[in-house]
């Protein structure tokens, strides 16, 4: 009875499955696997051998993708390909190509994802609704961006936008994705406009916050830190407690440092650390690296020593740029490098936090080579 309640089905339904008179649906199989902390390979081969309909198998593949079981989703899609060739004559081609493209994209195989999404475009171009054709162009754009083909991706987004009349959320996602692409092309003013349109359509839900954060970053790249600071402060006021507020505080702190107020930046960065979850050590390391830089720039070496001790505890999760910036500061102050690592080949052509750390170091003891 408890199992049926937790899975959201009736006791009779569970009994019919146990008796072998009914095959469980994809949702139930994936939810039960999660509930009992099992692995899908324990039942997947039997399920694939038993199920001969494409629609339930595509539903299963989609749910396995959502759960992060990529290899298992690939097996389900392979079964659909076999059945489609034997019985269905292309009836499910569009959905198959969509899911196969998503699978390849999540596996980091952007070129193969492009091929699948191109087939999806052709399939839905013949018989799909406007929403399906829009999805084909949008997904193809994402795969092209994964290959670094920014302008080709923008062209696909233009095609998608022409199909987005009456589809508010889809239109917002097009503007959001276009903003990312324009940032990659360093067209920051145009990117800010695209992010602003996306934020207007999405309101202040999760993606709306991301759109406004993107707008602040684009204005930052276009007009500088002082111009971006009001947008970041407005974002901070509206951010939800937790990850959103932590990221907003971090960005306000960085903008204060870039505006020449390193001491003021320290306060926002310390507030950001108070919002960090224990599970996100990479984000904590990034904020600690920024805080260390602001503390040494403002001359508070006692606080910097305490921050350095805390950074040592998460140095294993830190990114290379964070490690390099902290190592540059340690080298200038005569402190041991974080985690005992030596960072070679540092030079003063870097941008961002590492560039600021190297500039501060050069002012203390000359350029690093």
Question: What is the compact description of this entry?
Answer:
The chain is mainly α.
Would you write up a description of this structure?
The chain is mostly helical and 369 residues long. Among the domains are: 170-238; 253-369, no CATH class. It has 20 helices and no strands. The protein has helices at residues 2-7, 11-18, 26-35, 41-50, 54-67, 70-88, 93-106, 110-127, 130-146, 150-162, 168-184, 188-202, 206-223, 225-238, 243-258, 262-275, 281-297, 301-314, 320-333, 352-365. Helix 5 runs parallel beside helix 7 (93-106) and helix 7 (93-106) packs parallel to helix 9. The longest helix has 19 residues, at 70-88. The model has no long low-confidence stretch (mean pLDDT 85).
What's the end-to-end separation, in Å? 69 Å
Give the biggest beta sheet. none
The topology string of helices and strands comes to HHHHHHHHHHHHHHHHHHHH
Q: What count of helical segments does DSSP give?
A: 20
Coarse morphology? globular
Which stretches of 5+ consecutive residues score pLDDT under 50? Answer: none
- Taken as a percent bin, the fraction of beta residues is under 5%
Average pLDDT taken over every residue: 85
DSSP strand count: 0
Taking Cα atoms only, what radius of gyration do you get, to the nearest Å? Answer: 25 Å
* Structural classification: mainly alpha
Estimated helix fraction: over 70%
């Amino acid at each position: 009875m408890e199992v049926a309640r937790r899975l959201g089905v009736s006791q009779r339904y569970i009994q019919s499955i146990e008796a072998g008179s009914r095959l469980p649906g994809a949702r139930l199989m994936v939810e039960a696997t999660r509930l009992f902390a099992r692995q899908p390979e324990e039942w997947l081969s039997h399920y694939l051998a038993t199920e001969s309909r494409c629609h339930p198998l595509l539903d299963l593949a989609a749910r396995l993708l959502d759960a992060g079981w990529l290899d298992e989703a690939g097996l389900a899609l392979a079964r659909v390909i076999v059945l489609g060739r034997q019985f269905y004559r292309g009836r499910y081609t569009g959905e198959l190509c969509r899911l196969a493209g998503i699978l390849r994209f999540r596996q980091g195989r952007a070129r193969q994802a492009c091929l699948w999404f191109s087939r999806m475009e052709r399939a839905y171009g013949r018989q799909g609704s406007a929403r399906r054709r829009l999805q084909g162009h949008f997904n193809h754009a994402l795969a092209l961006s994964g290959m670094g083909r920014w302008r080709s991706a923008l062209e696909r987004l233009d095609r998608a936008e022409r199909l987005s009349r009456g589809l508010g959320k889809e239109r917002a996602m097009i503007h959001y994705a276009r903003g990312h692409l324009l940032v990659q092309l360093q067209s920051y003013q145009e990117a800010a406009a695209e992010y602003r349109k996306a934020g207007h359509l999405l309101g202040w839900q999760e993606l709306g916050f991301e759109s406004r954060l993107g707008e602040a970053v684009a204005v930052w790249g276009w007009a500088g830190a002082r111009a971006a600071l009001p947008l970041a402060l407005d974002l901070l006021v509206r951010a939800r407690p937790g990850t959103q507020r932590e990221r907003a505080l971090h960005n306000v702190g960085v903008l204060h440092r870039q505006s020449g107020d390193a001491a003021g930046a320290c306060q926002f960065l310390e507030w950001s650390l108070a919002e960090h979850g224990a599970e996100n050590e990479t984000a904590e390391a990034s904020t600690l690296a920024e805080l260390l830089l602001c503390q040494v720039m403002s001359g508070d070496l006692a606080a910097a020593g305490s921050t350095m001790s805390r950074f040592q505890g998460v140095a294993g999760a830190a990114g290379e740029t964070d490690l390099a910036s902290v190592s540059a500061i340690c080298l200038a102050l005569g402190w041991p490098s974080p985690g005992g690592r030596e960072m070679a080949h540092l030079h003063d052509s870097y941008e961002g936090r590492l560039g600021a750390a190297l500039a501060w170091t050069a002012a203390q003891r000359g350029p690093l080579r």
